[in-house]
């Protein structure tokens, strides 16, 4: 502790102490890797594509991924779902939500 007036135990509760490496900003490729791992774990679905990855103002990442929710029995008209995954600057999952469902051939929401 630095001994400064504000460094009381009460002020430090909940503070995350990280290594020098984890203080660096998460790059796009790393954020996408974290999002891919999270969505396949959470949905148990096969990843089809990454359609968007962008850094947000707070240095977190918003990644949109398409997964195969239900494979087509005949042809290529799988039922897909688009998900948004938010990744914190330290790589932790902040949240995810389904944006839409659609059939591969039509591209329309199901």
Give your account of this protein's structure:
The structure is a single chain. The chain is an alpha+beta fold and 110 residues long. 18% of the residues lie in helices and 36% in strands. The longest helix is centred in the N-terminal third of the chain and has 16 residues.
Q: Can you give the mean pLDDT?
A: 80
Strand content: 35-45%
Largest sheet: 4 strands, antiparallel
Assembly of the depicted chains? single chain
Query: What class, by secondary structure content?
Result: alpha+beta
Low-confidence segments, ≥5 residues, pLDDT <50? 1-21
Helix content: 10-25%
Radius of gyration from the alpha-carbon trace, in angstroms? 19 Å
Termini gap = 56 Å
Total E-strand runs? 4
Order of H and E elements: HHEEEE
Number of helices: 2
User: Which outline best applies?
Assistant: elongated
The order of strands across the largest sheet is 1-2-3-4
Keyword list:
110 residues, alpha+beta, four-stranded antiparallel β-sheet, 2 helices, 18% helix, elongated, disordered N terminus
Could you give a short description of this structure?
It is built from two helices and four strands; from the N terminus they run H-H-E-E-E-E. The protein has 110 residues and is an alpha+beta fold.
Secondary structure layout plus pairing:
Blueprint: H1 9-12, H2 28-43, E1 46-55, E2 61-70, E3 79-87, E4 93-103
Antiparallel strand pairs: 1-2, 2-3, 3-4
